[in-house]
Amino acid sequence: MLKFIKHHVDTIVGIEVYPMLSFMVFFLFFMAMLLWLVKVSRNHVDHMSALPLSDDAPQVREHHAH
User: Fold this and answer.
1) Torsion of CA 22, 27, 32, 38, to 10 degrees
2) What secondary structure letter does DSSP report for 60?
3) What is the Rg, in whole angstroms, of the alpha carbon atoms belonging to the chain?
4) What gap in Å lies between CA 53 and CA 9, rounded to an integer?
5) pLDDT at residue 56 above 80?
6) pTM, whole model, 2 decimals?
7) Could you give the CA distance from residue 36 to residue 48 in angstroms, rounded to a whole number?
8) pLDDT, tens digit (0-9, with 9 covering 90-100), for 11-49
9) Is there a contact between 9 and 15 (Cβ–Cβ < 8 Å)?
């Protein structure tokens, strides 16, 4: 089964560009997240990490249409 799929994939013109393209997308996303992590302030990280435990978070009210 794998030989059958591999044979058909090998016959596609230009298929060799897709692994490099997917690697570049992953690498750029990873680097962007790393850059954001370095630049984000410690206060923001502390604030975001405390949000689920915070009692002063605004309460969401459910509105029911009648």
Assistant:
1) 160
2) P
3) 24
4) 51
5) no
6) 0.55
7) 15
8) 888 888 888 999 999 999 999 999 999 999 999 988 888
9) yes
